[in-house]
Amino acid sequence: MAKSTGNSKVKKKPDAERLIELYMNDVLENEKTPKSVFKFAKDHGLEEQDFYKHFGSFEGLRKTIWEKFFENSVKVMEKSKEYASFSSREKLLTFFYTLFEVLTANRSYVLFVLSDENSTLKNLEQLKGLRKKMKSYAKGLVEEGNQNKSIKLLRQNEMIFSEGVWIQFLFLLKFWKDDNSAGFESTDVAIEKSVNTVFDVFDNTPLERIVDFGKFLWKEKMA
């Protein structure tokens, strides 16, 4: 039997990006997470399978949101012609600046999903995918830097450095959450000082940077 070619429209199935957008809007507008995939789908005129085609659960969707924050940051950086010629230190600075710009653009959502101070493990669970991607990115920076060091003893340990970058991100995330400065200028300063400190530690010239960074943190804490 021939299908009708009248004015009826075939409803377009949502892709992962659209589902993420709907989910984030729901969280912000209702100030709570959806109770079930069934209810979420029904509220948006979808079938449950439309959701499960892209995500196995809301937990999987939440992890993907953080991964998208990372991927969008990298895309923005790689559009710059200058980025490829940056040193590893400059690339990490650019990465953190860009990532926190992305987070700031989604600040209401980020603050909400990280608002439960009593559920640290739950908060870290949604960051698992981001952690994997960030550590891989950091390892790549170390590999680039090590290629320019002919003396083996001066080469940086990829595993230790990548873990350090992740811990640094968690510190900066907490700092950014509590930052009340205009345009989050204090976070920008924290990014610069912390990245310089991390690299100086690994380059065995840490003292001046660490003291400078410590003074900054003390000033922010006592302000």
TrEMBL record:
Segments forming domain Tetracyclin repressor-like C-terminal: 91-217
InterPro entries, sorted: Tet_transcr_reg_TetR-rel_C_sf, TetR_C_23
Pfam families: TetR_C_23
Protein name in the entry: Heat-shock protein
Protein source organism: Christiangramia fulva
